[in-house]
Amino acid sequence: MKLRLTLIIAAVMFGGSVLAQGDTALRRRNYNHDNGIALQEFDPVSYFKGSRPVKGKAEFKHTHLGITYYFANAENLEEFKKSPSRYEPAYGGWCAYAMAEDGRREKVSPMTYKIVDGKLYLFFNFSANNHLLKWNQNERKFKAQADANWSKKWGG
């Protein structure tokens, strides 16, 4: 009886571990990162402080569910650890407007962003094509479409 209970507990623990590893692998596939580093090394907490985001430093890095973030200082790192979901960008860090259009994952300029209801949204802004300007034309509609596309296509 003891052996059976031990085997059941081990199976449940192993199964949970496999699921967690699968979730982490899925996140890594679906998130916008360069060799595992998100936000092109910008500090996610800095978007919510001050007038503009700042680059983080490798000495202040933290990996959350397979995605590594750099932070400008130890204070921002600790702030992120308290509530990672608050600081992680929407749609895995892909362009919010492109996600709304058709669910495609399009690169972003980390300096082109908007915080809406406490969430960070990033946008494509290259070759005189600023998707934030398009997003602002009907933010409510585009946010709803992006939410639906992210969930349907990428399991967000």
Account of the protein in words:
The chain has 156 residues and is an alpha+beta fold. The protein has two domains: 32-88, no CATH class; 89-156, no CATH class. It contains six helices and eight strands, in the order αββββαααββββαα. A hairpin with a 2-residue loop joins strand 7 and strand 8. Helix 4 (96-102) crosses helix 6. The longest helix has 29 residues, at 2-30. The chain is globular. The protein starts with a helix and ends with a helix.
Structural class of the helix and strand makeup? alpha+beta
Mean pLDDT, nearest integer? 88
| Molecular shape | globular
Give the strand order, joined by hyphens, for the main sheet: 1-2
**Number of E-state strands:** 8
Proportion of residues in extended strands:
15-25%
Order of helical and strand elements? HEEEEHHHEEEEHH
Helical percent range? 40-55%
Biggest sheet record:
2 strands, antiparallel
Give the total of domains: 2
Q: Note the gap between the termini.
A: 42 Å
Name the poorly predicted regions.
Answer: 5-21
* Cα radius of gyration in angstroms: 18 Å
If helices are DSSP runs of H or I spanning 4 or more residues, what is the number of helices?
Answer: 6
